[in-house]
C-alpha cells in the first residue's frame, strides 16, 4: 500500500526508477535517470489492479449501531461534563484574578516601602 501511495504521489514507476546494482561487495539501489521523468497519473482501475488489498469486510448492523451509539453517548457526556466544569473554571479564574490584584498591590506597597527606607544621602 505504501509503495502504491508513493507511486501515485510522485507519479513515478518504482520498478524502473530504481535499479539494483552491486558495488564494493554490497547491494544498493540507484536511480536511473531515464525513468525519473513525470509519468501520467494512474486511473482508478490501474490503482485497483496494482493493489493487493483485500475487499472491505461487511460490518454487522449491530456493530454499526453500537459504534454510532457510543459516539453519540460520548458527545452527550462530553457536553454535560463541559457544562458542569465551565462554571467551576470560571470561578477559579475569578478567584485567581482577585488574588493577582492583591499580590500586585502588596508588591507595589513593598516596593514603595523599600524605596522609602532606602532614601539616604548616598543616592
From TrEMBL:
Transmembrane segments: none annotated. Keywords: Acetylation, ATP synthesis, CF(0), Coiled coil, Hydrogen ion transport, Ion transport, Membrane, Mitochondrion, Mitochondrion inner membrane, Transport. The keyword Ion transport applies. InterPro entries: ATP_synth_F0_esu_mt. One of its GO terms (biological process) is proton motive force-driven ATP synthesis. Residues 88-119 form a coiled coil. GO terms for cellular component: mitochondrial inner membrane; proton-transporting ATP synthase complex. One of its GO terms (molecular function) is proton transmembrane transporter activity. It is found in: Mitochondrion inner membrane. Component of the ATP synthase complex composed at least of ATP5F1A/subunit alpha, ATP5F1B/subunit beta, ATP5MC1/subunit c (homooctomer), MT-ATP6/subunit a, MT-ATP8/subunit 8, ATP5ME/subunit e, ATP5MF/subunit f, ATP5MG/subunit g, ATP5MK/subunit k, ATP5MJ/subunit j, ATP5F1C/subunit gamma, ATP5F1D/subunit delta, ATP5F1E/subunit epsilon, ATP5PF/subunit F6, ATP5PB/subunit b, ATP5PD/subunit d, ATP5PO/subunit OSCP. Subunit e, of the mitochondrial membrane ATP synthase complex (F(1)F(0) ATP synthase or Complex V) that produces ATP from ADP in the presence of a proton gradient across the membrane which is generated by electron transport complexes of the respiratory chain. ATP synthase complex consist of a soluble F(1) head domain - the catalytic core - and a membrane F(1) domain - the membrane proton channel. These two domains are linked by a central stalk rotating inside the F(1) region and a stationary peripheral stalk. Belongs to the ATPase e subunit family. This is ATP synthase F(0) complex subunit e, mitochondrial. The lineage of its organism: Eukaryota, Metazoa, Chordata, Craniata, Vertebrata.
Amino acid at each position: 500500500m505504501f509503495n502504491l501511495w508513493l507511486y501515485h504521489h510522485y507519479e513515478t514507476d518504482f520498478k524502473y526508477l530504481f535499479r539494483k546494482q552491486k558495488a564494493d561487495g554490497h547491494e544498493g539501489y540507484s536511480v536511473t535517470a531515464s525513468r525519473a521523468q513525470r509519468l501520467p497519473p494512474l486511473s482508478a482501475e490501474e490503482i485497483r489492479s496494482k493493489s493487493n488489498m483485500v475487499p472491505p469486510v461487511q460490518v454487522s448492523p449491530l456493530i454499526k449501531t453500537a459504534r454510532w451509539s457510543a459516539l453519540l453517548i460520548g458527545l452527550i457526556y462530553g457536553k454535560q461534563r463541559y457544562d458542569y466544569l465551565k462554571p467551576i473554571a470560571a470561578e477559579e479564574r475569578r478567584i485567581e484574578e482577585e488574588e493577582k490584584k492583591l499580590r500586585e498591590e502588596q508588591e507595589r506597597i513593598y516596593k514603595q516601602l523599600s524605596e522609602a527606607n532606602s532614601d539616604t544621602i548616598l543616592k
